[in-house]
Each structure stands twice: as C-alpha cells, then as structure tokens.
Amino acid sequence: MAKARNGKGAKEANANEEKIDLEAMLRARMSEFSPSEQSLAAYMLDNIQTLPFETGSSIAQAVGVSEMTVSRFVRGLGFENLRDLKNRLRVTVAEKDSDIDDYMARFQMRDGRQQVLQESLRLELDAIVKAYALTTTEIWDEAACALAKARTVYVVGFQASKGLAMDFASRLLWARPNVIFVDNATGTFGEIITADPKQSLVVMVDTAAYAARGIKLAEKLKAMEMPLVIVTDKFSHWAFAYTRFVFEAHTHVKTFWDSTASLSAVLNLMIDAVATKLGPKAKRNFAMMSDMGSLFGEFVGGSYLRRKD
Length: 309
Known about the structure:
By secondary structure, the chain is an alpha/beta fold.
C-alpha cells in the first residue's frame, strides 16, 4: 500500500511540474520571433484548446511552413519535442476546464438552446479568467506604470469598439486627471499628433474588423515614439508590430456577435491597476470628481460615490 501511495504522489507531483502557461510564454517572446515563428506562435495562441490533438504535419500545413520549422520552434521554446509540449499542455487545459465546472452545473435554460448556451458560457467564463491572468504579467505592470505617469492619456476607439473606449476614458478620469477621449471630429487626430510624445500616452481599443484609421494612427505613433497601449481581440496579432503593450482578449463565444465582456474586464482591471499605482492620489482625484458631480447636480447616488472600499 505504501508503494502505491508513493507512486500516486509521484504522479501528482509530475503533473504539477508539467503545468505550463503557453500563452504567456508566446506573448512574452512574440517580438523576438522571426516572421515564420510569429505565424506559428499566432496559430498556437489561436488554437491552444485543440493544440494537444495536433501533429507536426497538421500544424505545418495550417501555417504554411515545414515540419522541421515546427520542430525547431518547439525546441526553441524549451520543450524536448512536440509530444512533450502537448503532454504538458493537456494538463493545463484540463485543469482550466475543471475550474469552471461548478459554474456550469448551476446554469440551466428552459428552451432547446441549453447546450449551445452552456458552451457559450464556458467560453465566456474562460475568457474572463484569461483577462484576469493578464494582470500577473510584467508587461501589464509596465503598462500600468506608464498610464499612471503620463501627463496626458488620449483614448481612441473605432466603430463597435468606440463605446468601450469612451467608457474607459470617462472612468479612468476618476482615477487620474488629463484623460481625453478623442472623437477625431476633424479627421486628423490633431489632438494626439501635436502632443508631446514624452509626456503623453495613447490607449487604443479596436476589434475585428480592424479600422484602417487605427492602423494608420498606430504607424504614426510608432514613428513619433509615443507610448501606445492596444486592447484588442485575438483574431489577429497585428498590434505587436506597433507596441509592446498589447493586451488581447478572447471574444469568440459562439454567439451572434462576439462578446466584449473580456475586453471590458481588461479595461476595468487596467483602471484598477492605475489607481493602485497612484494610491492616495487616485483617492483624492476621485473625491474631487465627486465634488464636481455634486456641484453640477449630476448624480443621485452620493453615498455610493463616497464609499470607503
């Protein structure tokens, strides 16, 4: 019996050692990869759930590279081979799935779409979990520091993402001053282009299909060396060409429109991170905004605006 227990314990220990965060690993090195490696990384990021069932041949065919390139890439990530990567990834994927099983068990629908919406809920919850996971990365902390230190923060959003950007700008203003949502009424983004790159930062929110204006603005900001934070989805990894501060969220949840819940979570967590960095300054700024709201008779819930938590 002792031998059996030891064997089981060893097995559990090995399973714990095998857990990996492939997504974080690939994101951290994206800018270092060659074009073909970036294509491989993008494919893996988009297909993490099914990657354990892929072969070197199927990956190579999907990306348009050779099997040898796939093998070299996997070894370059620190794995012995593709089998090693898949085995370790299976443990991680299985564990993440079990984390939300209790939520799934509580979900019931009265019509025939129960199974479809259960899968949608699973994807939605997983997307929120992954949004929170972004806060544990070094690049997140760097972005939060930059947002807290910049003299002026400009926020832009396009098409269906415009509302998310406006909400982010209006709520970030309660944590720190000088936050400006740029509606681009002139068609020139003059407010941003004429700003001091050393004192300013731009937050861009955009999702597929991506706005042509957004790409052009990102190119201009890169040439100006103005800090840029991009919050987007995971359908394309275009944003890494313009900035290190890229935060991609999962939006595909098998509903009529892709969900923006995870994007909202990322933006809300970003405001919280900035407020945490600013500490007492953020609290004083919040109090000042509350006073202005009272002065103009803007709000009814005064007690909410004065809460201590």
